[in-house]
Design goal:
This protein has two domains: 139 residues, PurM-like, N-terminal domain (60s Ribosomal Protein L30, Chain: A, 2-Layer Sandwich); 188 residues, Alpha-Beta Complex (Phosphoribosyl-aminoimidazole Synthetase, Chain A, domain 2). Helices cover 31% and strands 25% of the residues. The chain has ten helices and 13 strands. The strands form two sheets. The protein has a seven-stranded mixed β-sheet. Strands 1-2-3-6-4-5 form a six-stranded mixed β-sheet. The chain is globular. The two termini are 15 Å apart.
Length: 338
């Protein structure tokens, strides 16, 4: 198999074989559902939300990456991230005390920034790995009545995209291909801005998720990651068992993202997209959501609508023409490593 996530339909079949006999498991493994939900039993008011995510594409700022991508999965449940565990596998080549300390400082700063506690994990130097691998686990809490799932989309909902695409991918390209981009004639200033996309506009969606949940009844949320916006929307359709019509022409793509993707022939809608947030709400809630995001100067755009449909699928709409959108087998970002 080639690097990247497994095929969506293949994974759907695998996960279909798992069923928990533990009644405390409110939500287990499903396509598009990036965090499990457990009722700890000690409280009648809150669920625990639990997720796991690795960082494999880039070692630079990997501590920040690890905290934030796990935090995003918690945030899309409408939950507050609380506790973080991390496994760090350092390669033999190039690892020294300073390298290890640098990564731990990154994790510490990110945890402090988002008020998260590091509570455990594992660290070692490992033979057989060529670059640092971080695997994170995070636990959060959400009031039971405020739980949001990827599969909660309702017929008639509007599909909104917060910020744009492809934020994470743009930063990765700039960091991994900095010298090559300059050789191709792309201005060093633009490459520096693209590298900083990790922080501005940023790959975290916690604040956007909190704003949405505080201003409206959010029916579903999802942060598109590997496979980009395309796979993210398809995962929402599968999870909610709904048909989603989307106008891809309305998707905001940052200028730096377009330029860097064009340099390597990448489709920006299929590039790893942490930093974007997909959510569905009733049309009646759109004015309130628009006001809140407008005051915070955070872009939000209606890009589609949830339909009942004959099946779980995504249709792209161009005028009167409709075409089913197929999931990408590999994230577009992988092309830059070939």
């Amino acid at each position: 198999m080639k690097p990247g996530k497994l095929d969506i339909r293949f994974m759907e079949g695998l996960l279909g074989e798992f069923a928990s006999s533990d009644r405390r498991v409110v939500l287990g493994p499903k396509i598009g559902e990036d965090a499990a939900v457990v009722d700890p039993g000690r409280s009648r008011k809150r669920y625990w939300v639990v997720t796991a995510d690795p960082i494999t594409f880039t070692p630079e700022d990997i501590g920040y990456y690890g905290v934030v991508v796990n935090m995003n999965d918690i945030a899309t449940r409408g939950a507050i991230p609380r506790w973080f565990l991390v496994t760090l596998l350092f390669p033999e080549e190039g690892t020294d005390r300073r390298t290890v300390e640098k990564v731990f400082r990154q994790i510490q700063r990110a945890c402090r920034q988002f008020n998260i506690s590091l509570i455990g994990g594992h660290t070692e130097v490992t033979s057989g790995v060529e670059r640092l691998i971080l695997s994170g686990n995070m636990i959060g809490e959400v009031q039971k009545r405020k739980l949001v799932t990827t599969g909660g989309a309702r017929t008639g909902d509007l599909l909104l995209l917060v910020k744009g695409v492809c934020i994470e991918g743009t930063s990765i390209i700039a960091r991994e291909k900095r010298s090559d981009l300059v050789r191709r004639g792309i201005a060093p200033g633009l490459v520096r801005r693209a590298k900083n996309y990790l922080f501005n506009p940023g790959i975290e969606v916690l604040h956007a998720a909190r704003m949405a949940c505080d201003s409206a009844s959010v029916h579903s949320m999802h942060d598109p990651t590997e496979g980009g916006l395309i796979n993210g929307i398809i995962e929402m359709a599968i999870a909610s068992r709904k048909e989603i019509e989307v106008d891809l022409g309305r998707v905001p793509i940052y200028r730096e993202s377009r330029i860097l993707c064009e340099a390597y022939g990448l489709n920006p809608l299929g590039v790893i997209a942490s930093g974007a947030l997909l959510l569905t709400i009733s049309p009646s809630d759109l004015p309130a959501v628009g006001r809140v995001f407008g005051r915070a100067a955070v872009p939000v755009q209606v890009i589609g609508q949830v339909k009942k449909g004959p099946m779980a699928r995504v249709l792209t709409v161009e005028g009167k023409r409709r075409k089913e959108l197929e999931p990408l087998r590999r994230d577009e970002i992988l092309k830059i490593f070939e």
